[in-house]
């Protein structure tokens, strides 16, 4: 007797359909799983017997062989429990499940169905394979419920799943989850009083996807400004939200506390983070903070405090927009299209720029602070902005027609600038001004005569390097896009020069 | 390696000269004070010993404001042929020497060590520059290392050879306050630059003013005090209407952040930032620590 039922497996955040083929045969009672199943799946055999019997079904006293097809791809995860258990019960009870229904879930000895990690990407791959209904753990219904055009059937026990398929007691489809709710953030740039020029810089960075270094003393508002960046990036598309939720699902971060993702992520890992924690990997190939920030913002506060090898490991993935991890002969890929923002104090003690407090750093400490910021990752950082604490008079000055700029205003401009970039770079290998390489800069950031004159002056008058020159052109292009201009104008270059790296500001006090 | 150090020492050794009290080259004002040194060791342009001297002193830890003021005052004095005297310490002292050298004028560093010793070490380049374009001076014989009690001692020479001592920025208990006190005891004039009253960096100088020391409100104050010609307006590069407006705001308000300027102008950053940048490119303003101010011109 042979039973075939549908489930899926994961590589990274990509799912693919898997058929569970179960065969019952007279002979010495035995239970084996083949088809590159890892130990967790093979272990489950021992659990399934009591789980099935405790659910009120008989367990075959025969030779059971389960084959997971395609057999040449490694498989892991506890979500194979439910489909394997059901395949045995269906064989024993003579039930034939419809071919467009798939199953996933972990089971306990008492027959209850427990939530699994990666339910959403599993469900996405099943939907793509033409599956119409998915029976899955009730706790995973909310995340999978974001999927349109597939029926999510949440179950709490093995018995509920069997009763649904046999038709004796159908499970109502899950409806109207929070996953369909509109994008929402609990912060907004209108809450940031003063700092209008920093907000302008945030808008430019967001519009052109420019990496940014924010420098300023403790408590001046660096984190507050960075945390609001997701609110001015374009509204999440449905597909983007699926991508993000897929990653969080695989990471095991979706659950009762956070059933769905409401907006673009903002991740701010601690300086003590390991390489696996930041870029991903480790024993079970989990996505790292970099991928958890996918389609959102990765914020590295106090950049100099991170292990420089960990920061170095970000370089390639950030450039490629994805993380590649080798795992059991398979390349696991986690998406990682992020906007990178880093922050730093002006010096080790933090008070270098403070007129009221005394900086206690030695000359050597200032120099080493500067060296740490000029590390290998700095060529991914186009913009350098200085954040000062808001003066009291600015806090108490509103009212005179100076309404703080809101996220909505800023996002509208960012979207227009992004649209212009999309039009310009269509058919090329570029996506944003921040991603332009030297060839791209030469091709797209064209300077007319007045602009060339301005840059010539800047070269001789300011401490501008060749690399700094290229960054200025990229930023100027974004400013032109924000202003709705087709080409770079001298004023755009002038403003862009304000965001250049200037050695002067890092670690120079005792002159 | 040993030989190289030896060679270098010998090179400096050959440059060291001495002058004793009573000799014509001995600074006249210094000769007037009670405890003037018997012998002075020096390296550099000895004609500076006969120049009119003004000392510009202050704390080691400073702000942009202090540094820029020290440079501006020293530069204006040096341009007018005054030798700027200071102690070559980090902070204000170094800025005073630099300001004078940048203006193409003379400067005298009075050390608390032998003239062949560089203390603090980070000032090696500055010391080289002063040796060749100014004068290094000490009452201690060559080879004397840095010792705590030498520095207050040395301060009496700084104030003693100067007709005027200007304290630019001093924290509480700064050595510069000792110099000011010595100057007053020696019957010399003292001026102090006032500072932000919230700031730790200015407590010492503000205290001097409260105690009756005359405040410096502009570089011209100093020039006037010494009977020197005021700063002549150097030709300004042509400014647009909007550039001139920002120039005036910074001239009146001192250093300001872009946000403060936006507030004053009731304009958005996108209007202001290109103007600030082009003023900076023209060399009219400069920035540090996120604030903008008029460049020393
Ligand atoms: Zn510090």
Please identify the structural class of chain B as seen in this structure: alpha/beta
Distance between the termini of chain A: 87 Å
Return the CATH class of the largest domain in chain A. Alpha Beta
What is the number of E strands of chain A?
A: 18
Query: Can you list the strand order of the major beta sheet of chain A?
Result: 11-14-17-10-18
Total domain count of chain A: 2
Rg of chain A computed from alpha carbons, rounded to a whole number of angstroms: 28 Å
Please give the CATH architecture of the largest domain in chain A. 3-Layer(aba) Sandwich
Q: Could you tell me the strand content of chain B as a percent range?
A: 15-25%
Largest interface (CB < 8 Å)? A-B, 48 and 43 residues
CATH topology of the largest domain in chain A, by name, is Rossmann fold
Main beta sheet strand tally, sense and closure of chain A: 5 strands, parallel
Q: Which percent range fits the helix content of chain B?
A: 40-55%
Numbering strands along the chain, what is their spatial order in the largest sheet of chain B? 1-2-6-5-4-3-7-8-9
Instruction: Tally the helices of chain B.
Output: 12
Global morphology of chain B:
elongated
